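Sorry, I am new here, but would you mind making up a protein's amino acid sequence and the tokens describing how it folds?
***
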Amino acid sequence: MKRIFLFFLLFFSFLCILKAQNTKQIDSLVQVLGKLPNDTTKIQTLIKLSQTYTNMNDTIYTKKYAEEALALSEKIQFMKGKIDALHLLGIHFIKEGRESQALPFFQRSLELAQSINDKSATSRGLYWVGDTQMKLT
């Protein structure tokens, strides 16, 4: 019984530490974000924020920062930013259980990745398109 209690105590302590680290990272990124010009560094920061919120299962901020990254990527024609932002928007809808809305984002991200021959983003896109289509059937 003591071992089980100790296990759960350590497990929940570990979760608290992870949450604190994510919160610290978010605070740092938000601070930096306000000082950045509208360039690729700002887009990458927005994407990192979106990813961090995704890891915390916070779909509202995942979507918010992904949409900002997508808008800025389109404005300055940063293809890698578009690919990542579209992917994160797809993830947002998956986490909300709305696979049919996620699929177009994954498909568009995949198309763009293939168009610039980004093998890593292409393989990621193929996985998510296939996985989402499987969930829809």
Summary: The chain has six helices and no strands. The helical segments are 2-33, 40-55, 59-76, 79-95, 99-115, 119-136. Residues 14-18 have pLDDT under 50 and may be disordered. The two ends are 45 Å apart (CA to CA).
